[in-house]
Design brief:
Structural class: mainly beta
Order of helices and strands: EEEEEEEEEEE
Strand content: over 45%
Number of helices: 0
Largest sheet: 7 strands, mixed
Length: 124
């Protein structure tokens, strides 16, 4: 089992920035990919970004490319999602997830472990 704890969410004005963190504990040696998904009220959960734990390779949803950056700190078992130029459309609960399998994927069904989520609200 891998346990995930997210932090860093909050209220920010349009154009502002936030950095989310996700720290893993437990059987972290089984991790291959860490990713972020988000779910806005009344909408389905959607992929945001993911990073390979071993190579550092990354993938992003088109809606966040150029604005969001995902990174990892292996000794701390933590990944970060730096979010810049936020808009109200980025408002959602953001979930951290871990995929034990190989490869970088944007499909939520691939991910084995999930955090509880952290709320991000972009509003003036």
């Amino acid at each position: 089992q891998v346990q995930l704890v997210e932090s860093g969410g909050g209220l920010v004005q349009p154009g502002g920035s936030l950095r989310l963190s996700c720290t893993a504990s437990g059987r972290t040696f089984s991790m291959y990919t860490m990713g972020w998904f988000r779910q806005a009220p009344g909408k389905e959960r959607e992929f945001v970004a993911a990073v390979s734990w071993t190579s550092g390779n990354t993938i992003y949803a088109d809606s966040v490319k150029g604005r969001f950056t995902i990174s990892r700190d292996i000794p701390k078992n933590t990944n970060y999602l730096q979010m810049n130029s936020l808009t109200p459309e980025d408002t959602a609960v953001y979930y951290c997830a871990v995929d034990k399998g190989f490869g970088l994927y944007s499909t939520s069904a691939r991910y084995d472990y999930w955090g509880q989520g952290t709320q991000v609200t972009v509003s003036s």
